[in-house]
Amino acid sequence: MKKVIIIGGGFAGLKAAQVLCKRFKNIKTHVIDKNKNSIFLPLLPDVIGREINHKYLEYPLDQAARVHGFNFINREVSGIDLEKKKVICHDKNFDYDFLVIAAGSRTNFYGQEQIKKTAFTLDDTADALAILEALKAKSFENIVICGAGYTGVEIAANIKAFLLKHRIRKKIIIAEKFQGILSGMPGGLRKYVLDKLGQMDIPVSLNTSIRTASETEVVLSDGKVIEKAMLIWAAGVKCADFLSGTNLEKNAQERIKVDRFLCFKEGCFAIGDSALVLRGQKALRMSVQFAVTQGASAALNIGRINNAKKEKIYKPVDLGYIIPMAGANACGNILGIQATGAMPALMHYIMCIVRSWETISKLGIIRSLLVN
Ligand SMILES: Cc1cc2nc3c(=O)[nH]c(=O)nc-3n(C[C@H](O)[C@H](O)[C@H](O)COP(=O)(O)OP(=O)(O)OC[C@H]3O[C@@H](n4cnc5c(N)ncnc54)[C@H](O)[C@@H]3O)c2cc1C
Fold first, then answer.
1. Bridge partners of 339?
2. Which ligand 1 atom is nearest residue 122's CA?
3. pTM score, whole prediction
4. What are the residues facing 94 on neighbouring strands?
5. Which terminus, N or C, of the chain has the lesser number of Cβ atoms within 10 Å?
6. Domains and CATH numbers, the chain
């Protein structure tokens, strides 16, 4: 029986495992993940803003393994040997016939180790809880968010919602290195977000980066010192560290360039945030919809290769994107149409409820959204 190893049990990896287990009984599927849970990332900001219980965003991978029929290996991958067909973990190596890299992405500090030591991030539920704790602490009077991309904007809006609800007085400022916010987004949406941030009393300092940061102080590139400040770093992401050691073709975020079948080498696939899928000259966004459809597509192609059939081309369908800013403020592009206000916010939460893994999580999320 042929053996597939999927590195990463997030949206892409879980979908691939689910399709392989359901459709191809002659293939044994193993999912390796460094975490015990698959995390529902799009609702992380709401753990802060709407105080959604973090447990509703955590799907235990051993449970997923029982439900779908794959083998879950709880280990961190430190390397891959593509010649010997081995996945390397610190205490053990795993052989494979087919490899799927679905290891997602994490905050990128661009080598700034000092800032990495003190800054908060929003990569998983533990990070969201750490930010919540810090917001309650009296020691911080200022919150500096580095990066006015969609994550920075979402974090700022959700922190504001939390502070207002609990009547905590703290100032929020977003520092953005470039000349404008939400780089690459249409002008109308950028204006909407900037206006909303203004109404929320969240100033954005453009052309500004972080010079240094300690546990209590942040120094901006213009020399301004912000005391009693916590720094939240949302200035970009990069793919898993073990990919750095490979000489595969990758972009600056270390996403692996794949062909039309999501393949980067015979029998080896990359999907989700790990994959660089080009449409013309442009890379597909990192998003749940593409992670899930790529997971299904790679799994079907593995099944086809195993059954001596030709693979099928992955054809992405872009349903659009939404930037939720806590409450009824959101904006985005839905099926090619720009939308702002309560409607995109509602659509975002409906998408999250539909996509979340368990009924108990769906009900818990609905309850939290209605109550908060
Ligand atoms: C705060 C936030 C908000 C977001 N909001 C939205 C949104 O509203 N809509 C949207 O479409 N997208 C959103 N995204 C992006 C979306 O979540 C990602 O594009 C999506 O999760 C990618 O799926 P994936 O399976 O590739 O990676 P992930 O879901 O990140 O899964 C990767 C898995 O790989 C595991 N892994 C990583 N490295 C290793 C290793 N070395 N060894 C073993 N396991 C490893 C991780 O533990 C993880 O379980 C958001 C992301 C964040 C962080």
1. 332
2. 1
3. 0.96
4. 87
5. N
6. 2-34+75-107+237-317 (3.50.50.60), 113-235+321-371 (3.50.50.100)
